[in-house]
UniProtKB/TrEMBL annotation:
It comes from Streptomyces cynarae. Keywords: Membrane, Transmembrane, Transmembrane helix. This is DMT family transporter. The keyword Disulfide bond does not apply. PANTHER family: ACYL-MALONYL CONDENSING ENZYME-RELATED. Belongs to the EamA transporter family. Residues 3-130, 143-283 form the EamA domain. The keyword Membrane applies. InterPro entries: EamA_dom (IPR000620), EmrE-like (IPR037185). It comes from the Bacteria. The chain crosses the membrane at residues 28-49, 61-82, 113-132, 144-163, 169-193, 214-232, 238-259, 266-284. The lineage of its organism: Bacteria, Bacillati, Actinomycetota, Actinomycetes, Kitasatosporales.
Length: 285
């Protein structure tokens, strides 16, 4: 069950990243984050009311709140790092996020077997290569490197926090709602500051009504990914769940190949293959 839900997480996150990347070509990244997360929060709020999730309120919600506040910081740091580039170096650095939940799992006493350790190493190497690392060319600015590390630390911390935010299904809906509400609050504050500084909130053609379904998909896919990861981490080793969930860059690369006809570089194709081998080792180990 852990492998299945963790792989579902990587699929959902990969598609959400692909959709978010397309949307940010047409409108500001902050707008994409705030609108997509607002839609997700509204849907989750309706689910919480319908399932009586409010009865699950308790101290664990602090984990969800913390995840919701850290998430936007990590995402915006990542976007800024990508803007400074080169993307071929910055993007793979984000996969270091897996070190946080894996470290938490080891601290809590998890001891993966030799086959699983091999699977972790192979899968992480595959994910880094699938990101298309730029081995030659312009050097990475120190600011871009630091921002990428901040993003990786933030993403990994969200991984660890959301796994601790609930123990039941209805409680998970409530935890995800709290996380999304915090995302909207944090992202909204950042958007307000950006607007005060003169940054645009909408594309040149005005309110992007036609993009609302795509924005909804991005927000809901991201929420679903958090939910499937929490279930994966609760029903099996966190070390395995975190590594399998971190395969989402492979999904994003394959989506770009399938929908945009972007050609995979040889290193990306090799990375996808290694990630698949690592997945098999983890699932069978």
């Amino acid at each position: 069950m852990t492998a299945l839900f963790a792989l579902a997480t990587s699929l959902l996150w990969g598609l959400a990243d692909f959709g978010g990347g397309l949307l940010t070509r047409r409108m500001p990244a902050l707008t994409v984050v705030v609108v997509s997360q607002t839609i997700a929060a509204a849907v989750l709020g309706a689910i919480v009311v319908g399932t009586g999730g409010w009865s699950e309120a308790g101290p664990r919600l602090w984990f969800a709140l913390a995840a919701g506040l850290i998430g936007p910081v990590a995402l915006l740091s990542f976007y800024q790092a990508l803007a400074l580039g080169p993307m071929g170096v910055v993007s793979p650095l984000a996969t270091l996020s897996v070190a946080v939940p894996v470290g938490v799992g080891l601290f809590l006493g998890e001891r993966p077997g030799l086959v699983q350790v091999a699977g972790i190493l192979v899968a992480v190497a595959g994910v880094v290569l699938a990101g298309g690392p730029q081995l030659r060319g312009a050097p990475v600015q120190r600011k871009a490197f630091l921002l990428a590390l901040v993003a990786a630390l933030g993403f990994g911390t969200v991984f660890a926090l959301i796994a601790e935010a609930s123990t039941t299904v209805t409680g998970l809906f409530l935890a995800l709602f709290v996380q999304r509400a915090a995302n909207v609050a944090g992202g909204g504050a950042a958007l307000y500051v950006a607007l005060r500084r003169g940054a645009p909130a909408l594309p040149a053609e005005g309110t992007p009504w036609r993009s609302l379904p795509a924005l909804a998909f991005v927000g809901l896919a991201d929420v679903a990914a958090n939910g499937t990861y929490a279930i994966a981490a609760q029903h099996g080793p966190v070390t395995v769940a975190a590594v399998l969930a971190s395969l989402y860059p492979v999904v994003t690369a394959l989506a770009a190949r399938g929908f945009l006809s972007e050609r995979l570089r040889a290193v990306q194709a090799a990375g996808a293959g290694l990630a698949l081998v690592g997945t098999v080792l983890l699932a069978t180990g």
